[in-house]
Amino acid sequence: MKGDTLFDNFKTISEKEWKQKIQYDLKGKDYNEEVVWDSPEGIKVKPFYHADDLEHVKVKSTQIFSWKIGQSIYAGNAIMANEKALKSIQKGAEALRFLIPEESIDIAVVLNNIDLSIVEVYLNMQFLSKEFISKTLSKIPQSKKIHFQADPIGNLARSGNWYTSMSSDIGLVNDLVSSEIENLLSIDVSLYENAGADMVQQLAYAMSHANEYLNILQEGNTLSKLKSIDFKVAVGGNYFFEIAKLKALRNLWDVLANAYEISIPCHINTEPSKRNKTIYDYNVNMLRTTTECMSAVLGGSNTVFNLNYNAVYKKDNDFADRIALNQLILLKEESYFDKVENPAEGSYYVETITSQLAEKALILFKAIEKDGGFLKQLKNHTIQNRIADGARKQQERFNKKKTVLVGTNAYQNENDKMAQELELYPFVKKNPRKTLITPIIEKRLAEELEQNRLSHE
What is the pTM assigned to this prediction? Predict the structure, then answer.
């Protein structure tokens, strides 16, 4: 061997030379038409990426520590929720997210015998209550580690109403932050993914949503007391793009935090998207959630919560819970997804897409702010209309089978019958009620097709 290393014996190939080789192999066909495709976000995806692509991309190194395996639990009954939590911990769960439907739930019972120094706890409260939070802080040892996930703006976007009123909710946020409660605020980005927003929209809305809180706290002179912020993100099936989405989210948050001259950690908890889940050939959902959880880990999530393969149409059950938890355990313990820090860092493809998503999201974010901000655009329905437009484009691709969901709009099993299996209503519920704004509605791609199949069983 002439060189000191194996690589010294190979000539460095430039990006231009690779492209020329591809064009030669295409035998006269147009390079841009044959091998370059456009993503829904307007990004042109090339057939290969090269070190030259990173010349104009700032690769930011972010220290991501070991991610935690999450388990979601409904806490309508405090004793039963606690029992399920303890069993989940024994089976490998390292983080617990409790859905708290009302203030009367005794959180001390829910968290009984759970070591908060080891187990991460998230409280997905369906209300906003200073009394509930204060009681939790006073009754629970190590309660500073609990993530309260307060998000009144997210509730407005999802339900169309504030918890109480704008002035009351915003005043309470300022009041709670002034108490220097750790892990208080959360940004629910999952709503935008599940409603059909593209990735640029999700990122821009996440930043604009967060910026509303930063503005509120700055005006209330409490911004300096904000300790951290959570982002709850839904991860879809576009594997590499979803990795890039999470990396871009961290980069954008750093930009926003720097603009306010604050240094606040960004905590990301993720779950698979509901958008592409189906009731027919439901076992395929396990494949979808596996790759989505992989994207979540490689993108730098702090905690990953899986989605049961039959969550769309069936109530919680031990078997589905065990499968969902085991998927994450297999990724962590047997596939060693916790042994390498920042595994996607330096990838020409992922870093380039990360940069492009962040740039496009930043442009949209600035446009939202120039127009008055996130709340104003929610109230005049600009946000809802843009998401609806993105959802419509996704639906058209699904209907034309350009987006394939195996077992649903392609390779259907005609013998698959589901009418007698539905324990939950799996479609958008139409419940007319009075709201301040039009809420953002989550909707799965397969709903119309599934309803048609059910009607013909």
Answer: 0.95
